[in-house]
Amino acid sequence: MSVTGNPYRSRKADGATDNCGSLRNRDVGRRVTISGWVNRRRDHGGLLFLDLRDHYGMAQAVVEPDSPAFAEADKCRSEWVVTVTGPVVARTPETINPDMPTGEVEVHIEQFAVQSVAQELPLPVFSDLEYPEETRLKYRFLDLRRERLHRNITLRSKVISSIRRRMIEQGFTEFQTPILTASSPEGARDFLVPSRLHPGKFYALPQAPQQFKQLIMVAGFDRYFQIAPCFRDEDARADRSPGEFYQLDLEMSFVTQEDVFAAVEPVLHGTFEEFAEGRIVSRLPFPRIPYEESLLKYGSDKPDLRNPIVIADVSDVFAREDVEFKAFKNSVVRAIPAPGAASQPRSWFDRMVDWARNEMGAKGLGYIVFEEESGNPSAKGPIAKFIPAAAIAELAARAAVKAGDALFFSADAKKDRAAALAGQVRTRLGRDLNLIDQNRFDFCWIVDFPMYEWNEDEKKIDFSHNPFSMPNFDRTRFLTLDNNDPVTILNIKAFQYDIVCNGVELSSGAIRNHDPDVMLKAFEIAGYPREVTEEKFGGMLNAFRYGAPPHGGTAPGIDRIVMLIAGEGNLREVILFPMNQRAEDLMMGAPSEVSARQLRELHIRTVTPE
Q1: What span, in angstroms and rounded, lies between the C-alpha atoms of 190 and 204?
Q2: How many CB atoms are closer than 10 A to CB 378?
């Protein structure tokens, strides 16, 4: 397992003098006692070899048939917990295992004791073979013994320690905020906790310490942080756990957006660099990319900057009268370069088109392939014949493509849909054409988010990101805005920002709205009457009326940070006891029914849905 730790441990009930990962050539001749799980058992013509594993690593022990300990050792099987005692002996040159830190030595067993017997295993521990999620989560305590997962969880602890140390060095103070709080109308669905003392009323587990950390600033503290548990009743994804997650929650007073960036960047950069193991981390300061620019160039507000593909807007080229391809007329058209794709077979292009239609829900995916003709770019492909040479040259220039490249097109009457498909195509091309450097951590800030967006379904204005953000707009003009002026309102930017690494959003943050009048107006624009805002956020509004400093913060997700550093694609691989996709704990049997007595105490009657 090769997890570093104290090389020696104090004697305990098992009498151990060393751990399994500490033995080296320097220990040859010493008589030691080690305890651990039997990782593997190998019978080599009478000689019995046992690989013993504990938290710190692996050690090989061997017992000969004429040893008094042989009979007992011969009975043991995988995952039995045993203690062995004997001298440390150097292995012969041909038996040295260079892949094990302890591979130059072994323990010759003179005494053997069984501490615990293991039944037949539902999944093997000594290999990283893939097993069904249901089996892995039901027997998570076994899954956690496997080397990769054990290493990931240990890494998680080290990452959290590194972050905490760096935050304190930056002048932040750690505080703890309440777990039982009030339900909030914004954000995801709450987990509710019934109150025994107040029949019919409920606490909520915090989706985030948002209001509390702002109140800490109002209370006069500065530079707060905590490794905060958060609870949201939402569906699982590969990068989002159902139920609970942890974040580095932080807030600062008397700061601008750039002050927050300057405080957060060294913490994240230093932490990633500490555990990079040769991978390259973005240089400071991290790039700042406006939201609209990110949607245009990358088709996403979570761009993976390891991917060199940059999307171009070519709507005006297809709008030209001499371009006869009518399917793109009156549409927003994005061009996505595919470097070197001209060498791909026609079947590869067909698969791209089928993927866009069947998985992305697009009507299609146009493309052209660039060749060189008399020193000028020319093109072939299904739509090339509808595009004159001058337009082909313009497309090549806009998208910075050359002979040997291809160019895909995403088109839709709505800009956001054209951008989203272009972003998906960019991601797929980056992966399929092996353009993404897996040896990098590329960070960026996405800034200048719109304060509001148009809800097409309900025909109303909604908050687009974080309702507690300060609008980047003249205060007097904002307070006198006509709530029915969508043109002006939808162009208001906010002091909101996300930090992204390798296409994964680590956190959202903002300079907070600490002005009660501006906050009431902001919610009013989004359709919340003032009395509703006062009722739901009265505690915070009242606090702001007694003198509130300008403040802001963010909250990078711990689980996502560790997932990226560990090189995993799923959060469950870096969480000790995760739930499954249906928010069930298969090991502990949660959620579970409770007794009628407990329900009566909580004044609750359950109603099973039909």
Answers
A1: 6
A2: 17
